Amino acid sequence: MVRMSAEERRESVIRAAVTEFARTGYKGTSTEAIARRVGVSQPYLFRLFPTKEAIFLAAARRCLEETREIFAKAIEGAPPRGAAQAMAAAYDHLISEDPEKLQMQMQIYVAVASAEAAGDHEFGSAIRKAWLELWDGAHLALGGDAKETTRFLAKGTLINTLMSLGFPPDHRVWDGF
Predict the structure, then answer these.
(1) Angle between helices 83-97 and 121-141 (to 10 degrees)
(2) InterPro entries under this entry (predicted)?
(3) What is the pLDDT of residues 148-171, one digit of tens each?
């Protein structure tokens, strides 16, 4: 049996954390569940990440980075005016193929809002930084047009909300798309 390096194990923890946090949120996920999913002890988990918050932040950053990377790949072969459509199609494929990505994004927003409401502004700061990188990537892809970037991300947020609420594809709320 080949032993994993600490970096490979850390990567396994991040993947497991995305799954667990996507399903049960920050408050509802135990580090025990993440450790069990990876097949490590909690003490080992805490050697890789000092706190549950650090695990969540790594998972949140990963989720947002992957979305940004999906957007970047999508526009590589797209015509200059087709960036929004290419990114939208790539994102649709991402959340259709891996619904945990959508669930994790929604959990990220809930966790930040909850922390902010409790007076913890530092928690959201790291996530806002990662989200801003996502915004900047879309903004550049859309030619630096702030209104177009806002429209694109606002529409994406509405899609996330409707999908999270479970509206079927043939429901009237989708008519505007």
Answers:
(1) 130
(2) Homeodomain-like_sf, HTH-type_TetR-like_transc_reg, HTH_TetR
(3) 999 999 999 999 999 999 999 999
